[in-house]
């Protein structure tokens, strides 16, 4: 199988984690192999370990400007945040402060570890304070007036130095002035995770009480971090029992991780080192990347102002292109970026951009591109070229428009299922006739449909809905699309066209009188019912055979009794709502009869054998643009069938491929699992999927 090797990877997600530098990995390995002693032991081996521990702490103090106060080694920033919150709230409870009217302040764009830690310890300690998010302006900067108003009632305030999604850098000096003017004794935590290596710190010269850091955000391994605690700041150990770290954090120290920090701190303090690039160079990288992105995506919008951001972060949205589509094609091109929000099938927005008051489409389409201070010029050059390749694949798929789109063919033909969450919109496309019908349009997909129509020069025959017409305003919104595609400038084609009311030959499966029919290429689309209709798509018209109902499109008020009269046993029933990714159903399923096959469960080694056999059919269920950027070269036959086209594939091949060995494959294994399950339900009896997807395939 041809997959780009790991060495070809362009990693631009450094705000999530960074690769480990070779010299840091070597320090970890050396410590594990040669300096394996317990720092608490009094023999020579233990003393050698203690030297690394003490010297790392000394170097760390220099890096963050902490000549006074404590520097405590932790498992990472989350532990540091928990310790800081526990310390501040335990102190408040010990002081016997009345909690009525008290608040816990945190920035609205903080990492979720902060408000969740506040909520957890607030409840567990019985504090009963109210959590309040400090608003930010359109640049992501904290509202100083809000802080001024609520700080006199605060038991703690939590802010961050640099935001992990946008790279926005808070003005700590101004924050300190406001905080200490209105709450001189309020414990203040500053999340410094994204600040390390990107700016100067002199924490001992400030009144910041707690500052957590994490090693894996700056070329160290995961599982090691440290916490700065200001001298005389309240402190309660999160982990107790053993007395390590001067009693501030018990448990045997992670010496290999601490040795990694030792090498990192040495690099940060070495004025002659060439590993970490100066700010001017990093600014140049960012400008170069932005130039490539703007060329590739003309509708790109930046989600933060450079003047308030560190130079290693680019957060952007592309109008009309969901972040998932960009991420998937970038991943196929071996570029690693992330969406601006948490990764979840139900999380489609960036809470950070929402807090900044940016438009919905920007929040829903945000992409974060982040590099580190050790990034090389060659990586940036290669990234710019690869971005161009990814954009060309999106143009090919009509997700972007350009002057050359007419030279490409999206290969769409038949029934296409588009989704937004659980809502399904169906396109009936006749490729030869260049005709299209939209069924159950979804507002969030309108721009995508419009691009497809413009790109492929389709004539839109109708935009219909299975809902009452008054309940779906999206169909009316698409009237302009209809007119732009060359149809009559009236609204006849929105909804069920008036010219489709003529009598039509009724399909053999249908025992109900239709409201008329509409020709789409060589098929008829029938409407049954008026208030909440269903739509039936016939088989191709033939003078020698009566038509059957191949597809039925049904809305929320699905009626099995009605469908039993309208469709046949082989009809593919396509729902407007599909929470469980059924893709389509058949009558026997509605009548609670099981006629499918079980999914084949085979070992990974046997799957690899299947992939080497010419008789195997590999369904690459990635989107067309992903397949174009990273095609699969296998002895087995490979066919690109995205989930959007799976229902048409089932219709075309369920008899032909019923017993053929089929392996479904995608980037991560999620989409291929859906496809394999659906195919098994429809009687494909020799189907498996590649768990873990291409991400786990050997190159």
TrEMBL record:
It is an enzyme of class 2 (transferase). SUPFAM superfamilies: PLP-dependent transferases (SSF53383), Rhodanese/Cell cycle control phosphatase (SSF52821). Its EC number is 2.8.1.7. Residues 612-699 form the Rhodanese domain. GO terms for molecular function: cysteine desulfurase activity; iron-sulfur cluster binding; metal ion binding; transaminase activity. It catalyses: (sulfur carrier)-H + L-cysteine = (sulfur carrier)-SH + L-alanine. The keyword Iron-sulfur applies. Keywords: Aminotransferase, Iron, Iron-sulfur, Metal-binding, Pyridoxal phosphate, Transferase. The keyword Iron applies. This is cysteine desulfurase. It comes from Pseudidiomarina atlantica.
């Amino acid at each position: 199988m041809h997959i780009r090797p790991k060495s070809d990877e362009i990693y631009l997600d450094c705000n999530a984690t960074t690769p480990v530098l070779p010299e840091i990995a070597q320090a970890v390995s050396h410590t594990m192999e040669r300096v394996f002693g317990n720092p608490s032991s009094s023999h020579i081996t233990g003393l050698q370990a203690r030297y690394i521990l003490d010297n790392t702490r000394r170097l760390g103090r220099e890096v963050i400007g902490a000549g006074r106060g404590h520097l405590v080694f932790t498992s990472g920033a989350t532990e540091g945040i928990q310790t800081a919150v526990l310390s501040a709230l335990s102190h408040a409870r010990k002081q016997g402060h009345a909690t009525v009217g008290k608040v816990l302040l945190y920035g609205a764009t903080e990492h979720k570890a902060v408000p969740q830690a506040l909520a957890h310890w607030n409840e567990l300690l019985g504090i009963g304070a109210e959590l309040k998010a400090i608003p930010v302006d359109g640049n992501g900067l904290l509202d100083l007036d809000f802080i001024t108003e609520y700080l006199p009632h605060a038991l703690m305030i939590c802010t961050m130095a640099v935001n992990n999604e946008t790279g926005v850098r808070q003005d700590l000096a101004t924050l300190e002035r406001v905080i200490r003017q209105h709450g001189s004794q309020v414990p203040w935590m500053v999340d410094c995770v994204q600040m390390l290596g990107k700016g100067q710190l002199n924490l001992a010269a400030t009144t910041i009480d707690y500052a957590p850091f994490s090693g894996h955000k700056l070329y160290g391994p995961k599982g090691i971090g440290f916490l700065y605690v200001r001298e005389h700041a309240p402190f309660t150990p999160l982990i107790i029992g053993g007395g390590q770290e001067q009693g501030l954090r018990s448990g045997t120290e992670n010496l290999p991780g601490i040795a990694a920090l030792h090498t990192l701190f040495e690099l940060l303090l070495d004025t002659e080192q060439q590993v970490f690039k100066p700010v001017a160079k990093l600014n140049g990288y960012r400008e170069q990347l932005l130039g490539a992105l703007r060329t590739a995506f003309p509708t790109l919008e930046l989600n933060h102002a450079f003047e308030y951001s560190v130079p290693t972060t680019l957060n952007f949205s592309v109008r009309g292109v969901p972040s998932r589509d960009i991420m998937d094609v970038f991943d196929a091109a071996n570029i690693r970026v992330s969406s601006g929000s948490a990764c979840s099938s139900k999380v489609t927005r960036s809470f950070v951009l929402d807090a900044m008051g940016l438009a919905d489409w920007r929040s829903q389409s945000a992409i974060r591109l982040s590099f580190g201070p050790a990034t090389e010029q060659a990586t940036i050059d290669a990234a710019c070229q690869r971005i161009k390749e990814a954009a060309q694949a999106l143009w090919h798929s009509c997700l972007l428009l350009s002057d050359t789109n007419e030279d490409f063919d999206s290969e769409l033909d038949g029934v296409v299922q588009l989704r937004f969450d659980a809502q399904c919109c169906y396109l009936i496309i006749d490729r030869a006739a260049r005709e299209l019908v939209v069924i159950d349009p979804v507002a969030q997909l309108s721009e995508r449909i419009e691009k497809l129509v413009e790109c492929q020069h389709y004539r839109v025959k109708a935009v219909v809905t299975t809902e009452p017409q008054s309940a779906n305003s999206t169909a009316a919104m698409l009237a302009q699309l209809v007119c732009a595609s060359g149809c009559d400038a009236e609204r006849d084609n929105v909804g069920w066209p008036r010219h489709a009311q003529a009598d039509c030959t009724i399909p053999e499966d249908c025992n109900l009188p239709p409201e008329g029919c509409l020709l789409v290429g060589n098929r008829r689309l029938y409407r049954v019912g008026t208030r909440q209709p269903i739509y039936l798509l016939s088989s191709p018209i033939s003078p020698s055979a009566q038509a059957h109902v191949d597809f039925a499109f049904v809305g929320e008020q699905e009626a099995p009794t009605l469908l039993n009269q309208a469709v046949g046993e082989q009809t593919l029933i396509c729902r407007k709502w599909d929470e469980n990714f059924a893709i389509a159903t058949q009558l026997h399923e509605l009548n609670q009869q099981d006629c499918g096959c079980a999914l084949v469960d085979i070992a990974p080694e046997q799957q690899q054998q299947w992939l080497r056999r010419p008789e195997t059919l590999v369904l690459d269920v990635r989107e067309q643009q992903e397949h174009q950027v990273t095609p699969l070269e296998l002895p087995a036959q490979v066919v690109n069938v995205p989930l959007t086209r799976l229902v048409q594939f089932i219709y075309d091949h369920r008899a032909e491929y019923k017993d053929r060995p089929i392996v479904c494959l995608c980037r991560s294994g999620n989409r291929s699992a859906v496809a394999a399950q659906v195919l098994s339900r429809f009687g494909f009896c020799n189907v498996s999927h590649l768990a873990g997807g291409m991400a786990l395939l050997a190159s």
